[in-house]
Amino acid sequence: MIKRVAAFILTILISTAVASDGSRAWDILREILFVPGVSGHEGPVSDFIQNNVPAGFKFQRDRMHNVWFTVGSGKPHILFVAHSDELGWVVDKITPEGRLRVKRGGGLLPEAAEARPLLIHTARGPVSGIVAPRPGYDERRQQANAPEATFTAENFDIFLGVASEAEARALGVAEGDSITPKKVLVDFAPGLMASRAVDDRAGCAALLDAALRLKADAFRGKTVTFAWDVQEETGLFGATELAKTLKPDFVFAIDTFVSTDSPLESKRFGYLPVGKGAVLRAVDSSNVTPRTEIRKVMAIAKKHGIPVQVGNSRGGNDGSVFLAGGAVDIPLSWPGSYAHSLIEKIDRRDLEALTDLILAVISDWK
Amino acid sequence: MTDRTAKKIGVLLALACLAAGSLRAEDLKSLTRELFVVPSTTGNEDLLAGKIRGILPRGLAIEEDGLGTIAVRFRGPAASTFLLAALDGYGHLVSGITPDGYLTIDRPAAPPHARFDAYLLGQPVIVSTARGPVQGVVSQPAMHLLTQERRKTLVENFSLENAFIDIGVRSEREARDKGIEILDPITFWPGLTELAGDKWSGPSLGLKAVAAVLVAVAESLAKEPPPRETIIAWVAQTKAAARGRGARPALGAVRAKTKWQPVRTIVVDIVAAGEDGKAPLTGKGPVFILPKDEPSALRQAFERAAAGAGVSCQFLAAADSPVAIPFAGPQSEVLTVALPVQFLNTPSEVIDLKDIQALRDLLERFLKTGGGQ
To answer: B6, B112, B163, B276: which one has the fewest Cβ atoms less than 10 Å from its Cβ?
Structure first.
């Protein structure tokens, strides 16, 4: 009896939580982009997600900061998962001169960070720094044709404005602090922008928006889990942890489609233009979605009048780690130009189509 | 008046001076911020010139040279002292529009160093059109699709041949509808970063800080005119070199020399700061650039002004810059005083706020005491 009352209350809460049918995904994205969450440091972004989902959902959170909630009951069990982590670096060392060194990696072009501002996320708040230009950047090269030394994250020499280790530490900076590029929003036009960390904050925003717009009757007779997982960029670690407890029949990873809609890319594959709708990322480096499932998604999209493009590109997705557990992985995306850059481009219409598609799948998937 | 009262008045006066100094520092910071966001590249100095005109005290007549340079004159006896700073920074311009709406890029003047163009890769930029700023990004390859070969071509050997600005349109027509025209200036996103230790960082920040210092000096002279004729100029086209044999003077400087014919010129420039023990340091005061070893009368006058203003200075032996070259001659004196700038000519030039205050104090002292004449 108590369980039935609780379920009734939950249903009421979810129903009343839907303030309107309008999508808030774009506004959520423009806010969540600025919440720091380098892989392994996702606490603040997981907090943001948890604080922005209606109170009626029973959230779970593990020690890695994966967060998720499940509604409904019965079969099939559908999992939607977006990763909350972003590319960045971690302070490895503070030099006697007060400069910072970082660990190798980061996933971004080091050249795009050279002579650029960063934010070091300390326990006391963000501290600004500059990646010093490589030594001799302004000197005439002795041999113009000789190749330049490769510039990697290990070459980063981050200047904070101080001259000693003690001064750097006095700012609150410590080994292990995460570092992100200083982000800007480039507004090409209303509803078309570029910024850092659109991958995969757009996925996070789409899932949050879908949660806000979710109606109780949509998931009647099935189990639906919404998850925001961590450490995707460094090896799908958050999803791997989730896969130990969640055994979905279908997993819809919500992540960037690496589009070749760019003046620099070959259009041989991956040419799904920005602004032409959501994406079903049928084939990537980690998964091949069966054509039967693709047709199901496209039929649902057609029924609801949602623009969806289908294509293949590169990169892995979190859904792929659920394959071994018996799930079918059907990644949903938006077309994203300039993936893993400071200028990842996204169109509002694509994001809203993606949210609509998530809600339509919840409602119609069998 | 008792000793106690005198002491109290002394303390109050000292506090008032401190407060006034602090207010003046805030004014200079605010001026620098205002100028920082205004793009200005060689041949496209009109926006910054317009901004400076708008800030300068009313009543000061603006003189022009037709090339984009603006100046204000404080009349007085004796030969004039000409104080100048550059109005233009290094930058790029729109050289074409592709059929699918991307912008191609060129430069109005030679770059300051070989890596200058490479800083565009994958960055937000502003295209300043006649109808206002247009936001864009310089394309970069997607990391997932980057082979070693493409990395070499598109990243390690990045050049303007592979640089396209995406302004979020699909055709040349749409680009033109946004106001884009060939030759529109392209500048880095004007993000100001506040660092620890009173340091600021941003693109073309050194240039803008020096321009702001001259505005502050002009404001001060408008309230308390100098005893000698003084002209303060913000000179356009200093990054374009005049053609001809030998050392290449800056076009704008040649033009300014012809127009104002100064006998004593103070070039207020920017200079690369470093940490190798050879270059000047930020935070240690303005830098005198000394092409010759012997102390000139002008240099001595400046050193006296520095001592009087309590400003510590640095000295650097270096050849005259292209801006200073036209003003040097048997009948005229020129001295370059520079603001030390770390990471000069990168998108993150670093200045120390103490240096710009010291530079302003030094110039004011020099001019208000008659410039040693």
So the answer is: B276
Taking the C-alpha atoms of residue B57 and residue A126, their distance in angstroms, rounded to an integer, is: 39
Which residues of chain A lie closer than 8 angstroms to B138, CB-CB? 343
* Contact criterion met (CB < 8 Å) for A263 and B156: no
CA dist., res. B96 & res. B216, Å (int): 39
What distances in angstroms separate CA B105 from CA A66, B159, B195, one per listed residue? 44, 10, 31
Pairing label, strands A60-61, A67-72: antiparallel
Closest CA to A342 of A220, A194, A139: A194
**Domains identified in chain A and CATH numbers:** 2-86+196-364 (3.40.630.10), 89-181 (2.40.30.40)
Report the alpha-carbon distance of residue B45 to residue B252 in Å, rounded.
11
B137-171 confidence digits (pLDDT tens) = 999 999 999 999 999 989 988 999 999 999 999 99
| Long-range residue pairs from A147-150, CB within 8 A, at least 24 positions apart, any chain | A147/B156, A148/B156, A150/B156
CA dihedral A284, A287, A292, A296 (to 10 degrees): -70
B102 vs A11 pLDDT, higher one: B102
Which domains are assigned to chain B? Answer: 30-89+204-372 (3.40.630.10), 92-188 (2.40.30.40)
Mean pLDDT of A206-219: 95
User: What's the Cα-to-Cα distance from B53 to each of A21, B64, B117, rounded to whole Å?
Assistant: 51, 11, 31
Using alpha carbons, list the distances in angstroms from residue A85 to A39, A104, A266, B49: 5, 17, 29, 45
Q: What is the pLDDT of residues A185-199, one digit of tens each?
A: 999 999 999 999 999
Local structure of A282: helix, strand or coil: strand
CB spacing of A112 vs B100 below 8 angstroms = no
Taking the CA atoms of A108, A109, A112 and A118 in sequence, report the sign of the dihedral they define.
Answer: positive
> In the prediction, which pLDDT does A105 show?
75
In DSSP notation, A182-207 reads: PP--EEEETTEEEETTHHHHHHHHHH
For chain B, state the CA radius of gyration.
22
Query: Which one, of B349, B341, B352, B342, lies nearest residue B203 by Cα?
Result: B349
User: Which of A116, A258, A313, A347 would you mutate first to test chain B, the one with the most B CBs within 10 A?
Assistant: A116
* Contact (CB, 8 A) for B286 and B355: yes
| Average per-residue pLDDT for chain B | 91
Residues in B closer than 8 angstroms to A150, CB to CB, are: 156
Three-state secondary structure readout of B340-358: EEECCCCCCEEEEHHHHHH
Best mutation site among A95, A127, A137 for testing chain B: the one with the most B CBs within 10 Å? A137
Are A138 and B115 within 8 A, CB to CB? yes
B192 touches chain A (CB under 8 A): no
Number of residues in chain B: 373
* Among the listed residues B102, B90, B176, B107, the one whose alpha carbon sits nearest the alpha carbon of residue B139: B102
Task: Note whether B96 contacts A: Cβ–Cβ < 8 A.
Answer: no
Assigned token pair, A189: 């036009």
Query: What is the model's pLDDT at position A16?
Result: 38
pLDDT number for residue B12: 57
Instruction: Give B241's pLDDT tier (boundaries 50, 70, 90).
Output: confident
* pLDDT of A145: 63
Interatomic CA distance for residues B89 and B323, integer angstroms: 13
Indicate if the alpha-carbon torsion angle A183, A186, A192, A194 is positive or negative: negative
Confidence (pLDDT) at A12 = 41
Condensed to tens digits (0 to 9), the pLDDT of residues A324-366 reads 999 999 999 999 999 999 999 999 999 999 999 999 999 999 9
Rg of chain A over all Cα atoms, to the nearest angstrom: 22
Q: Which residues contact B301 (CB under 8 A, 6 or more apart)?
A: B366, B371, B372, B373
Residue A313 has pLDDT above 80, yes or no: yes
DSSP, collapsed to helix, strand or coil, labels residue B68 as: coil
